């Protein structure tokens, strides 16, 4: 059995987590575990002394907590090796919970995809009410990330990456294996609704990145979501970008279609980690955790 040693990643969480007393009806759901927000760490650690003090305070209660490592990483990205080595690495195999829905995502998908961020897709109904449609996790192959991005971005801090438009574009444009995993949380969602939503959201991205409507490409993608497929609460949909810019669509473990198109892959990723993502918190976590990957040697 092959073992890998991974640095712990940090995932943002809101202040108020859902109550732990509700019963779980899905094996992929777990009780959320409190985690420090990356934004909180960066804001409060105004100096390395403050970061070290905060880290020591947290580590004294939980030696495996990643707060200290990430605070140091945000502030001194080029001098973090000693600081990281002084604290035990957190367990990188524990699932990560999307806190608003309570849905958990495995830290590793398959054998090579690492979870970088989790979020929630909401949809407004008639401008009167927002419903939670699905929770999602964004995964990437860490080796691919380092192969395609390290030379250009390996020496930049998380803050610098977060504010770099070129970095965000390169992450989506490079031939990096990535998967967006969706878990349905809205019990009345139909496959027709998914098809219609993607016609609108993916269609606008195809227009944005190519300057034309690309109706044929859009129809090839959305037609994969046939009426015969059902999406009860807990269903899993995976949009997987494979090497060579092949987008595979999988519903509950069954592949329903495969399309080779760099434009389509870019348009799908833009929904989740682009300039105007479905969940800003998820995008911020992806930026921070990609920075963490790039600083691993």
UniProtKB/TrEMBL annotation:
Enumerate the Gene Ontology biological process terms: fatty acid metabolic process
Top-rank lineage group of the source organism: Eukaryota
Key word Cell inner membrane present in the record? Answer: no
SUPFAM superfamilies noted in UniProt: Chalcone isomerase
What GO annotations for molecular function exist for this entry?
fatty acid binding; intramolecular lyase activity
Indicate the segments forming the Chalcone isomerase domain, all copies: 113-286
**Pfam families with a match to the protein in the record:** Chalcone_2 (PF16035)
Q: Which UniProt keywords apply?
A: Membrane, Transmembrane, Transmembrane helix
- The record lists the membrane-crossing segments as 39-59
For this UniProt entry, what's an example GO CC term?
A: chloroplast stroma
Q: PANTHER family recorded for this chain?
A: CHALCONE ISOMERASE DOMAIN-CONTAINING PROTEIN, FATTY-ACID-BINDING PROTEIN 1
* Family membership: Belongs to the chalcone isomerase family.
Designated name of the protein: Chalcone isomerase domain-containing protein
- Supply the source organism for this entry: Gossypium stocksii
């Amino acid at each position: 059995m092959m073992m890998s040693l991974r640095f712990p990643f940090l995932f943002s969480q809101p202040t108020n987590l859902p109550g732990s007393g509700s019963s779980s009806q899905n094996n992929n759901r777990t009780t959320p575990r409190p985690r420090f927000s990356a934004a909180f760490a960066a804001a409060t650690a105004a100096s390395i002394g403050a970061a070290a003090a905060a880290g020591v305070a947290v580590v004294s209660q939980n030696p495996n907590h990643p707060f200290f490592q990430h605070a140091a990483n945000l502030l001194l990205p080029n001098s973090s090796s000693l600081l990281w080595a002084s604290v035990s690495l957190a367990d990188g195999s524990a699932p990560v919970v999307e806190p608003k829905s309570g849905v958990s995502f495995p830290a590793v998908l398959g054998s090579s995809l690492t979870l970088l961020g989790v979020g929630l897709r909401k949809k407004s109904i008639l401008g009167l009410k927002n419903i939670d449609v699905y929770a999602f996790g964004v995964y990437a192959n860490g080796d691919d990330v380092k192969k395609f991005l390290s030379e250009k971005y390996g020496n930049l801090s998380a803050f610098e990456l977060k504010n770099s438009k070129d970095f965000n574009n390169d992450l989506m444009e490079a031939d990096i294996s990535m998967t967006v995993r969706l878990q349905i949380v809205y019990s009345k969602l139909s496959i027709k609704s998914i098809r219609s939503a993607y016609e609108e959201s993916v269609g606008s991205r195809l227009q944005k990145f190519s300057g034309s409507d690309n109706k044929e490409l859009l129809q090839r993608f959305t037609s994969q979501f046939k009426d015969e497929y059902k999406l009860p609460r807990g269903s899993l949909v995976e949009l997987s970008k494979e090497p060579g810019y092949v987008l595979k669509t999988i519903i509950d473990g069954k592949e329903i279609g495969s399309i080779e198109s760099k434009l389509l892959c870019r348009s799908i990723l833009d929904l989740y980690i682009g300039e105007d993502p479905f969940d800003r918190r998820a995008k911020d976590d992806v930026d921070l955790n990609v920075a963490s990957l790039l600083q691993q040697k």
